[in-house]
Amino acid sequence: MTDQGNINTSRNPSDTPLFSFGIISDIQYCNCDHEGSRFYRESLKKLTSCVNELNSKDLSFVVSLGDLIERDFTSYDSVLNILDQLSWPVYHVLGNHDFSVTDQEKTKVNSKLGISDTYYDFEIKGYRFIVLNGCEISLFAPAENTKEYRRAQLLLNQLKVNNEHNAIDWNGAISMEQYRWLKNRIKTSEEAGEKVILFCHFPVYPKLVHNLWNYKTLLSFFSRQEHVVAYFGGHNHHGSYATLKHTHYLTLTAMVETPDKTAWCTVDVFNDRLEVTGYGREKSRVLYFIDQ
User: What dihedral do alpha carbons 221, 225, 229, 230 form, nearest 10°?
Assistant: First the structure.
């Protein structure tokens, strides 16, 4: 399915969404000079405007797709002070830059974000939302010289041997334990007649250098699950959109990019589609559910 362009604002008033939510990705704030197209300080002004706009809407929740900060643990305070002004619950997804802190501070990231489980799910009106932790196996989340760090090194080295396009140290993977949990939650959702929407910092489709290290495993599984309707990711600052089988894969553009143009969206949820309303550099799209 292709991009449907801007949403038709002349919608029949009776055709109201079941509920709506907001998505923000790659704020990447720090009190530091810009590098290339990334304007780190300007993210706070963009985020403040975004929060004010989100508070004017009727939402069930807001998702941050990760990379709240560029670096430095103290950067969290500035970002979270603004996000705390949201009128809606905020669900955090862990990104690679969220761990651009000292090894001692890495163990404090989850509690700083109010995360008890790094991958989790919740349900609203027949939709199951699943948050994945693509930082679980990585070179940035665990401290160096730990068994978790060495496990990531082994996986990355094997990907390099196989000349995989995403064999890059700023990507990550989910563990087999998380994968088993994911399969169980999706199976349970199918039995309950729920549709599934996933969030992860790392995209899995289309083929990008930013892909999750074990994206092939997830794609193979999702392609057999007709009730998995959408996967939202970040990490690739330019964004991307594609479909595979019955699933829409939308990677959001990064808020940190450019000195003055924002990027975020809201999503209206219907029985047969998702209507994405983009702001700033994020495009608006209608994602109709695909029958296979």
Answer: -10
Number of domain units in the chain = 1
277 contacts 259 by C-beta, under 8 angstroms = no
Domain membership of residue 260 as a residue range: 20-288
Q: How far apart are CA 101 and CA 129, in angstroms?
A: 29
Provide the pLDDT for residue 15.
Answer: 85
Q: What gap in Å lies between CA 124 and CA 147, rounded to an integer?
A: 38
Q: How far is CA 210 from CA 20, 168, 257, 262, 275, in A?
A: 28, 8, 17, 21, 25
pLDDT beneath 70: ranges in the chain:
1-14, 292
Structure tokens at 105: 């501070």
Q: Model confidence over 18-42: pLDDT tens digits?
A: 999 999 999 999 999 999 999 999 9
Count the Cβ atoms, other than its own, within 10 Å of residue 261. Answer: 15
Kindly report the CATH number assigned to the domain that includes residue 111. Answer: 3.60.21.10
Q: Is the pTM of this model over 0.85?
A: yes
